[in-house]
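Async update (no meeting this week)

Hi team, since we skipped the sync, here's where things stand on the single-chain job. The sequence we agreed to prioritize is pasted below, unchanged from the tracker. I ran it this morning and attached the output directly underneath so nobody has to dig for it. Comments welcome in thread, and please keep replies under the output.
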Amino acid sequence: MRAHEVDYKLYGDDMQFVEIELDPGESVIAEAGAMMYMEDGIEMETIFGDGSQQSKGGGLMGKFLSAGKRVVTGESLFMTLFGNDASGKKHVAFAAPYPGSIIPVDLMNVNQELICQKDAFLCAAKGVSMDIAFQKKLGTGFFGGEGFIMQRLRGDGMAFLHAGGTIVKRELRAGESLRVDTGCLVALTAGVNYDIEFVGNVKSALFGGEGLFFVSLRGPGTVWLQSLPFSRMADRIIAHAPKSGGSSKGEGSLLGALGNMIDG
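Output:
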C-alpha cells in the first residue's frame, strides 16, 4: 500500500520549517516535539514505532520491534501521528530543533530507500517505515560520527530531514569518491559505498584540528552534506560558556575580559 501523498511548503532560509497540507484521511508522522502548529481538524496521536503498514502487519510484536529499533538508533520509543479528520484540507507544520535547513526527499526518486544520520529525521508521510542500517566495517562503528548504526527510511512517500547550516547535494558518478568530515554527512542513497579512513599521518591527526578520521564516499549515488553539524556548534557554545560559579556580569566589557583572565 502506498504512503499517503502529502503536499508541502518550506518557509524561511536559515531557520526553516515545513508546512504540510493533509487531505481528509491523510496523516503524517513526526518526531516528538517537532510540531510547530496545527489547524483545527488535525488530530494528534502518540504511537509505537513509525505507524507504517510494515509494523502493523506483525500485530503487537511488530509494533514493539519497530519501536525497539528506534531505541537502538537513539530515538524515542514513541512517535506522533497527525491525521486530518476534517472534511477539508488542513495544515500542520514542523520545525527543526536547531538552526539549519529542511531537506524534502521523495523516496520514489531514490529507489524507495534512504540512509540518514540518526538525528536527521524530522517527519514523513504515513506509510514510510524507519529501520536501522548497520555499518559492516568495524572502523565505521568506532570512529565515525554516526556509530555502528544509521537510520534507514523506506517507502514511496515524502520524507523530511533537517541539517545544520547550508545543505549541499552532491551527485557521485560510478567510481567517483568524496572525503567528508564525519559530522557533515547527513544522508546518502543506498548505492553509495561508505567507509571511514584515517587522516593520513600523526601530525595532521594531532595538530590539524580536523579529527582523526573522515568519511570516504564512493558513487554512484547521491549524498547530502551539512556545513554546520550540531555537534560542532555545541562544542563552540560549551567552549565559550561561562565557567560554573563565575559571574557573567560585564561579560562583553574590557573589565569582564580582564576578570575572566584573572579567574583563569
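Quick observations from my side:
The helical segments are 53-57, 59-72, 138-143, 202-207, 230-240, 254-263.
Residues 59-72 form the longest helix (14 residues).
Reply here if anything looks off.
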